[in-house]
Design brief:
Chain A: It comes from Kluyveromyces lactis (strain ATCC 8585 / CBS 2359 / DSM 70799 / NBRC 1267 / NRRL Y-1140 / WM37). The structure holds two protein chains of two kinds. By secondary structure, chain A is α+β, with helices and mostly antiparallel strands. Chain A has two domains: 142 residues, Beta-Lactamase (2-Layer Sandwich); 35 residues. Chain A contains six helices and seven strands. In chain B, the strands form four sheets. In chain B, strands 3, 4, 5, 6, 8 and 10 form a six-stranded antiparallel beta sheet that branches. In chain B, helix 2 runs parallel beside helix 4, helix 9 packs parallel to helix 12 and helix 25 runs parallel beside helix 27. Classes of the chains: A alpha+beta, B alpha+beta.
Chain lengths: 189, 944
Amino acid sequence: MVNLSLYTVKAVLILDGEGRRLYSKYFHPPHEEISADSLASSLKKQKEFESNLFAKTHGQNSDIMISDDLLVIYREYVDVSIYLIGAIDENEIVLQEAFNGFKDSLELILDTGIDKRSVQEHYDMVVLAIDELIDDGIILETDPATIASRVTKPPSKDIPLNIELNEKGLLSAWGFAKSKLAERLQQGL
Amino acid sequence: MSAQTYKKSEDPHSGSLPDKMAIYQDCLNRFNESPVNPKLCRTLITSLLELLSHGETFPRQEATALFFSISKLFQHPNDSLRQIVYVAIKELCGISDDILMATSSIMKDVQNGSDLVKPNAIRALIRVLDESTAFSAERLLKNSLVSKHPSICSASLVSSYHLLPIAETTVKRFANETQEAVGDLKQLPYPDENSRYYPTTSHISQYHALGLLYQLKNHDKMALIKLIQQFAGHSSPLKNQLAQVQMVKFVHQLVLKDPNSIPQFLPLIANWLQSRHEAVALEACKLTASLSNLVPNDLFAAAVSVLQGFLSTPRVTTRFAAVRLLNKISMVSPEKIVVCNPQLESLVNDSNRNISTYTITTLLKTGTDKNIGSLIKTITKFIHEVNDDFKIIIIDAIRTLSLNFPEECDTILHFLMESLQSAEGSLQFKNSVVEALIDLIQFVPQSKEKALEELCDFIEDCEYNEILVRILHLLGKEGPTTKNPSLYVRHIYNRVILENSIIRSAAVLSLSKFALVKNDPELVESIEQLLTQIKTDSDDEVRDRASIALQFIDSVKSKKDVSNIAQNFIRPTSTYDVVALESKLSHYLSQGQEAFKTPFDVSSVAKYSEDEKKALDLKRRQEQAFNHTEESSNSGAGNGNGTEKGGRKGDRLDDNSFNGPSLESEEEDLLLSKYVDEMSSLEQFQSFGKCIHSSKIVPLTEIEAEFVVKGIKHLFDEHVVLQFHITNTLKDVALDNVEVVCQQEGLSEGLLDEQEEFVLPIERLLPNEGESCYVSFKKLTQNKDDIIVERFSNSLKFQSKELDPSTSLPFEDDEGFQDEYEFDSLFLSPGDYMKPSFVSNFATSLEELPYESVSVYNIVETNTLQEVIDKLVISAGGLPLENSQIVSHDATQHTLKLSGKCILDNTKALLSIKMIKTSKGIAIKALVKSDKESLAEDLSNNLI
């Protein structure tokens, strides 16, 4: 049987240099029951899978392998490894394409290159990039620049409350004060 | 903060993970603030997401509280905050209640948000909807689907796809828009000046649209063909390579369902093979490989040359994919990929060990007797550089190799011994080497003595008890029949002096077997001496075994009437089927106290003689070699199923690639033994004596039929009993007095009474119940060894009664009406009298047998050779030898070699069946040779 489903990616992982989890997402279709034997079903299985995976990939530098009946594409950096995992009968090059989107978009958004510190410091952007890459197992976009351009940076500064001092501004200030007061009163009650 | 959470933050393994409760409190406080601080909120949500990603979860109540406070952030217009809010909503909606409340806020964004957050909003929207509310998103999804912005369009398509399980009818309403989206090449808007990136449009929405469209048209084959015609081919609008891959898969699906449609797709496939996108070309290769014999040879060759090109690219994944596919092809038709050998040989030392292992197993398949030798030399170097998982895979490949190239056994033996003796390698690895050696000794007799000698050297310094014990057992089994048994005795006795008690006791058993060597009285004497010495051993198990062995040897020598029994104890001629024994024993134990009153009946477990056991083993190996495709080259540790099953089988310790017999056949065996038990428990059959043989279960109707009938043939000394297991699949009808009427066709020529002895009908068969009806015939011949061949045409007779829906029983006054139901005939074939048996040298054994019988058949139906072979193997009941049960797809002639023994009197029979495929059909010439003339004739005349 040919697998014609769009649900091609099983998981995306980022592990640190000792195999500990930095980011993990095990995908499953949002409106279907999670089957009991899938990795998405239990944390224990995931941890086991990850430590097994790390043991097999650490220092091997082989980019692609099969582990636990899953196709694994990965890249190891100095103190962090990134993984993309798909079903065993998936088209390897399609998964590689998705992985390239993942890897290259991270390289674009993390200014100092992919390492543990920059992943942790820009965790929000990493999360957003993966969200733009894969949507619950469906490859959403593979072009790294498109992904990077859709990832917003954190708001640059604390935007101050802006009240204009004209008639409309006064009205809105009054409205704001009124709502604030009502809120306080409600909280007091 | 409680003491416990405080401790947790100190835990070195949590790294820099923020504290869960602190984050929870902060989130609730900050998100409810007004005005919200977007920067701080984004940081907080990030920490929250980090927690969730590390596997932390919140109780439902807390998660719901979080969900609500996060939805408060919708009042702030900042896009960069909004984006992370959507991610958080998606994460939380699985563990929170009342998520519908966020719908309207999200919908507002889908309508009025900026182009940046619109896709995020759409994707979050469908996660908060459920079955009853999904329809409300219809207009929004449709509008976004036709949006000019590719990201928005993709988001809408993917979201619709997610919605399919709960709202298919809603999604079906935008089938037209989806169809248009496939061909629509939407461009990303030109990036504004302050953007740092220069996105190129990937047109991936085509891929999403195709995926969705397929699900909508899944059941409509014509629509699918139209889809392919519209979007594939020369003027294809498909720019995205994933979309093109999807297209190849559609074709794949279609031709699998209907092989006749292949010709119309051939130009397309050829075109895809030349695609500039590797993914597309690879998918087309996969398609071609899976069709193998159904596509013209030149197309297959084109696919192979594409793969050949892939082998030398610098991209690891491409090489990996290509070699993996080639490995798969090599299982069925190695001759087709021999052209790739030069490229493959250069990949043996690839830095990716997966690739090199695949390469080696492929080369071992495509290798000819000319290059096997040099190949093994390369592997000898290679094997030191990889880890144990790969080593085991390679040893397994070599093991199957040794069965295929018996003439290379010297090289293989040398290689195996070297791996065994090298210092590196775990127990599992060593065990698989020993496993391979045992195979070699069993199935390649010419290597036996040399291998045994090498093993003797090996046990001199082997650190693993398990392996030592196995080798000692093997020496005991094989040693006494060699030319120079005393050699082994010395090695075994050394173990008694030097090793621990476990090994000593194994060695004692092994020694005692040498006492049966007939032509060397001196040896027997020295064995006795040795055993007498051992009687003073410090370990009582060792002493016991020695005394018992001496006792046995004594009674064998004294030629008393118990000598046979004693001999059997020392050197059993047959062993139990370990798997069956285990399952019977555990069944017995699970029955509880009541059952323990009667002792366990060991005679119910099948026993196998040496030859039969070898036959079984070989069969298992062959099956394994055949199923070897994916799992074997799996990087070893995977395949939990195999490990579990093999472990249960208990006949191998490593089991990384051994799958055991397929699950189906195991289930069938269980079912069969259940039916046989049912039959033998009936009192009508008690007087018949022991059942000699029960056939496999033969399906006699389609499985979708109203009444599903399966037949089993039981042979007794003086009777033939047919068991028909009938299942009533009708929902509202009960069957009363069900009986089977069997009509003989007269092939038995008076050997079987034409009138049945008795029929045991089924009184009542309610819906979805299955029960057995028995028909018994008496043999008219006095000679038990006569083979009776007969074809029974059958029909079912019964009264059908309608059911009262309230009681689910037939109406009281319903008399029902008599009905009949015909089903396939049951053939009592000569194969039912045969059991598989092993001969090591087919050609010489064939010549030795005195009687021969030849018959010729012609099959007109357009079957493939493989189908005919599968049929013949079953109908003749023998064991296929020399891998002759597998034929390559394009072969036009083949010789099937089968070996078996008659179950009645153990006469040998060998079959050599030649077949030639022509345009008119398949011509078969069967040569049967046997110790008994009648057996040879019966077999050859009734093959088909």
